[in-house]
Amino acid sequence: MQKAAELLKKQFASEVVEVMDYRGDTTVVVKPGRIRDICTALRDDPEVSFKYLSMIAALDYAPQSPRFALAYNLYSHKNHDRLTLKTYLESDTSPAIDSVVPVWSTADWHEREAYDLMGIKFKGHPNLQRILLPLDWKGHPLRKEVPQRGDQAALEWVDRKIRPERIK
Amino acid sequence: MGIEEQLGYNILTTSLEKLVDWGRKNSLWPATFGLACCAIEMIVTAANRFDIARFGMEAFRASPRQADLMIVAGTVTKKMMPAIQRIYDQMTEPKWVIAMGACACSGGIFDSYAVVQGIDLYLPVDVYIPGCPPRPEGLLYGILKLHEKILKDPFLTQQYRDKLAARREAA
Hints:
A: 168 residues, Beta Polymerase, domain 2, B: 171 residues, alpha/beta
């Protein structure tokens, strides 16, 4: 979707970091600061018309820095076109970015999932709480530093609920 | 031989234990607890082709208070485990548990932070049915094994009462 890349380069020249093309799929890497403006522009432009957010993926590139990234997969019903919007978050310890719920309401649950499993904070989200894991879960298990079977809190979670006498 | 001679061949005598075990065996009512793909196989087992009704078990109950067998069919996530424990506690004695499929037996392929690595960590499992998922024949074979176990259940002995008391204490 070269049109969208052109649009972003024109309107957000200082925000676009890189445009990648791979087998007909376009990925635009942008800075995280004005993500909501960028998304609004992509949605409202009558020509590219990305009215649908397919998903938001959170990525952990540890031990690289910047460590966390987000990928927004957009879809345009009008042009039957896809676009991946990727952004690397500034902080490696408490990653945060503006929420895009005001742009696409479907982002609500996607952002809650990214928060739940990867611990990325979405500023301005109306209800940023866990969506998959139990509300009293500790930590964010899809981060690279968490072992596959989970940390001690994860191992003890069921025992804490139904067999408290087992915990030493 | 004693009383049987006087009764002729019209009446059978047996011990109370055998009679009760026979009754329990032939009217096991399972609680529906389908959690994943194994549930589909469990549903098929109840349908006409495999027909669990042949063993007096067609009454799948949605309420644990009316069931005496819990077939845990599928992946048990940690979030689900307190609910399973609660439903198990709501079932009346005597009660049995079948762990159906690799996930319920051992966690299966889900060696992860979110999945219980075998429900026998929390529930007293009577029969394990391996497979991913096990075919209906597998489930029926497991159920027949459970029937054998129930027939041997010496519920009137002191040993049994002690075991039951210990299990209640642990729960």
